[in-house]
Design a protein that fits this description.
This is Fasciclin domain-containing protein. With 186 residues, the chain is of the alpha+beta class. Helices cover 27% and strands 34% of the residues.
Length: 186
């Protein structure tokens, strides 16, 4: 029989028994908030202050239910700063209802089927002799390459590159890697 180690926590003056495993659940902080492995991609992303533009875009494109699905998905998630660095008016234009198809294409260009953590990405790059072609859900291709010995960069079909600033944000239905630029399909 397994032993469960319990600890006592004082919360608002009330003692509560909490399993140690629950207290030490591995989390990564993104946008000032903890990302929990027990939550799905959308439920975690809505809490990140660095991804409010991405969340608004996912909602406008009607992709919430998809990204809450079973997956697994690998999401390369651009920050608010990444969206702000697009040409002026781009985000506002993409968020208009008449541009939903284009917005969906841009967003799904940041999603790869399966769970590709940093180790798998690096393995694919090594196996590809310095680069790995990643098929996106939109049907496009992102190229992953090493920038030094520990940093992975992505190149879109237009030759633009983005750095992964936060790796391996594990989700219940996949993994998120935070990007410093928005990748654009051809």
């Amino acid at each position: 029989m397994k032993k469960i180690i319990l600890s006592i926590m004082l919360v608002a003056g009330v003692a509560a028994l909490t399993p140690v495993a629950a207290q030490s659940q591995k989390t990564v902080t993104v946008g000032g908030e903890a990302m929990y492995t027990t939550k799905d991609i959308v439920d975690n992303a809505v809490n990140s202050k660095d991804h409010t533009t991405l969340v608004a875009a996912v909602k406008a494109a009607g992709l919430v239910e998809t990204l809450k699905g079973k997956g697994p998905f690998t999401v390369f998630a651009p920050t608010n700063d990444a969206f702000e660095n697009l040409p002026e008016g781009t985000v506002q234009t993409l968020l208009k209802p008449e541009n939903k198809k284009t917005l969906t294409s841009v967003l799904t260009y940041h999603v790869v089927a399966g769970r590709m953590d940093a180790a798998k990405l690096m393995g694919a790059i090594k196996a590809g002799k310095g680069k790995a072609e990643l098929k996106t859900v939109s049907g496009g291709t992102l190229t992953a390459m090493m920038n030094g010995s520990r940093n992975i960069i992505l190149k879109d079909e237009n030759g633009n590159t983005a750095n992964i600033s936060v790796y391996d944000v594990q989700q219940s239905n996949g993994v998120i890697h935070v990007l410093d630029k928005v990748m654009l399909p051809k």
